[in-house]
Amino acid sequence: MPKRRIPLSTKGEKTYHDILETAQSLFLDRGYHKTSVLTISKAVGISPAAFYQYFDSKETVFRKICDRFFDFIFDFDFSSTAGDRPIEELLEKLLDHFFDLLWENRGVYKVFREAEFIDLEIGKAFSDRLHQKLNGFLNRKTSPEESRACFWFLWGPIYYLSGFWILWKGEPVSSQVRSTLKSFLLHGISPDEFMVNKEVYLNLGDAQTIAQQVKTKGEKTRALVLEAAEALFGRNGYTGTGIHHISEAAQCSVGTVYVYFRTKEDILRELVKQTSRELRHQIKAYAARFTDRRDQEIAAYCGFLHFFRNHRWMYAIVREAEFVDSSISISYYDSLRKPYEIALQQAIDRGEVSFYEPEHLAAILMGIGHSIGFSLFLIEDRAYYDNRNVLEPLSQLILYGLNRFMPSHLMQKPARKKTQKQTIKSEGAIGAETSPAEPLISSTKNREVVT
């Protein structure tokens, strides 16, 4: 491989930085897969040969841009907790650092979101480094299970809320959302002491969670097409899969595929919609065994793990949909979040959950689920997890927050909304009235990523 030029002259440095800036803009507008070396070179005004004097591939440029993101994120004194400053002050500083930084550098942030998915080594390197930094921020010794739970608890909501507000809504994360997140991280959701039912960690059999339906011949063929697409999108990615690949795997003609779906994107859209429906059904089955919302929350995470253990490709597919058409992802998360908000409001009214704005609390809890999914289904990619080992340390954080782990910084519990106990009927996840309402937890997917 020829040695790359180290830019020494002013002109060389300008060309080097022009390539990076132009590539970042193209990745942002077109996405990674639709941007080529030729596209970058033309936009910069140089030949591909000149491009290769500075970078050996598009992937190298992509990684350089991600290095910038790393520099932004980690330019922060995570060890500042070693002093006597109260945890709430330090936590506020940490949240402002992340939210302000991601807003100011939202272009690089958006490119990074795609990069960590396309190249899992980038995602793993970032997660490992941030995990280590946040562990130092807490300034206490923890077991590996507690450390992992703290990472999900802290980073999951920050990352999800940043994506929701900054990338999807096009706004900085509001002060109200930041305040709600800080209060949640400090105090959790439980207004009082609560003993978690140990049965929340048990798995249900598939027969108990899957709605059995009689299908016509056409419905069976359509289901086979979706099943084939799920496996192929999962293994090879959306971009690396063609309609002819799907028809071969489904053992039907290309024409038959087009009978049911106009485009490959329509197949992706239907897969994501189907995942939302089935995930909500599964979570409802797990939560229905319990009456208190706090038990339901933990059981819902078990249902989430169960679902994606059986649909190991779908976590990655839902995540990839964000880069194909963001409206697919937005619709997916909305279908989970909106019923979730109703369920949380019911729990607040019953006195089972501390008073927070349900809209914000739903997004926070979904962010934790998102972080679990990325760690377990993409980074670690293991087929089985012991629910209790994974979720018990996390459940204590969700219930009581960081204050339970930092007694020297105890704070007053957040105010509870005083309401009369009442039963509210709401539209459930699969269109049925529920009382109490079902919990819904965020998700995405799992796969072998082919880059």
Task: Describe the model.
- With 451 residues, this protein is an all-alpha fold.
- It has two domains: 10-56, Arc Repressor Mutant, subunit A (Orthogonal Bundle); 80-451, Tetracycline Repressor, domain 2 (Orthogonal Bundle).
- Helices cover 65% and strands 1% of the residues.
- It has helices at residues 10-30, 37-44, 48-54, 58-74, 87-104, 106-118, 120-138, 144-169, 175-187, 206-209, 217-236, 243-250, 254-260, 264-287, 293-310, 314-324, 326-349, 358-380, 387-400, and strands at residues 426-427, 433-434.
- Strands 1-2 form a two-stranded antiparallel ribbon.
- Helix 4 runs parallel beside helix 7 (120-138), helix 5 packs across helix 6 (106-118) and helix 17 crosses helix 18 (358-380).
- It starts with 9 loop residues before the first helix and ends in a 17-residue tail after the last strand.
Q: State the CATH class of the largest domain.
A: Mainly Alpha
CATH topology of the largest domain: Tetracycline Repressor, domain 2
Helix count from the secondary structure assignment: 19
Task: Give the helix level as a range of percent.
Answer: 55-70%
Task: Set out the fold topology.
Elements: H1 10-30, H2 37-44, H3 48-54, H4 58-74, H5 87-104, H6 106-118, H7 120-138, H8 144-169, H9 175-187, H10 206-209, H11 217-236, H12 243-250, H13 254-260, H14 264-287, H15 293-310, H16 314-324, H17 326-349, H18 358-380, H19 387-400, E1 426-427, E2 433-434
Antiparallel strand pairs: 1-2
Helix pairs in contact: 1-2, 1-4, 1-6, 4-6, 4-7, 5-6, 5-9, 6-7, 7-8, 8-18, 8-19, 9-19, 11-12, 14-15, 14-16, 14-17, 15-19, 16-17, 17-18
